[in-house]
Amino acid sequence: MSVRERWVAAPPEAVWEQLADGWRYADFVVGSAHVRRVDAGWPAPGTSIHPVVGAWPLLRRGRTTSEEVDAPHRLVLTARSWPLGGARVVFDLVPRDGGTLVRLTEDAVEGPGRLVPRPLRTPLIGARNTETLARLEALARERGTAPG
Q: Would you say residue 145 has pLDDT above 80?
């Protein structure tokens, strides 16, 4: 299981705004090329966003489903894309020092990704999620400091 944290100089609401906008998913999630569709009501539990993942020519359709929501503090997702399988992804947003500590926890839960030994998959997921958090921070800081 990979756990990455990043302190963001923006309030939890500014970070949450990025997570709650399904169309922004590909702007911060490493490996997502674009979003094809967002279910009405996202991120309510049971709703999904439908990204295209990978890089050309190996693009694949995916589905990321919201499992648990506690706005603006926690979002639990199940991300699926064949042939990689599925992952449980948890974003925890903790107010801290005038900003937000964002904790991103992820691990493979189904499919071929589970066959990769944990000592190999954890650092790979971690490197990807370090960049995901950097991108999320940039979006949240931009929004958190915008006038109005």
A: no
Take residue 106 and report the two structure tokens written for it.
């992820």
Question: What is d(CA 87, CA 111) in angstroms, rounded to the nearest whole number?
Answer: 9
Question: What confidence tens digit (pLDDT) does each residue in 101-112 have?
Answer: 999 999 999 998
Q: What pLDDT sits at residue 54?
A: 87
Output the CA torsion 51→54→57→61 (10° steps).
-30
Q: Which residues contact 65 (CB under 8 A, 6 or more apart)?
A: 46, 47, 48, 77, 78, 80
R_g of the chain, CA atoms, integer Å:
15
* CATH class label, 2-144: alpha beta
| Secondary-structure breakdown of the chain: helix, strand, coil percentages, each rounded to the nearest 5 | 30, 45, 25
Sign for the CA dihedral angle at 84, 33, 29, 79 comes to negative
Rounded to an integer, the average pLDDT of 90-99 is 97
pLDDT value at position 113? 86
Query: What average pLDDT does the structure give for the chain?
Result: 94
